[in-house]
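hi! just following up on the protien thing from before. the input was this:
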Amino acid sequence: MIIIMRILLLTCVIYIASCVGAQPSYAPINVTCPSDLIRYGDNGLSPQESQYISQRRIKATRNINTWLELVNLENFDVSSFLANESNVPTLAIAFSGGGYRAMLNGAGVFQGITCGKFVLMT
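and the predicted 3d structure came back as:
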């Protein structure tokens, strides 16, 4: 009898705890956007974003320069190629998430991309 009462009490405590911390539904709802966003959709990049991009481009260009010199392409002038800013790519790599399988898949792909002298980390 005491065991049944303890199980019932524990069940009640777990139920109450789950109700107290209950989150709203993930279903889409209409909301008002905050007025203090860094970026607004109608006026381009914020100063912070522009500064980040310019600093990032300098670092990326330096690493692409190092990589292109390492691969030592015939009849290819790295300096003149990178003198044109439009030749420096802007890119990102993203992998899906959600669990160990997705994490290990992304790590394996990334390791394959970066093995040897294929890509320098920026």
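The mean pLDDT is 77.
The two ends are 65 Å apart (CA to CA).
cheers
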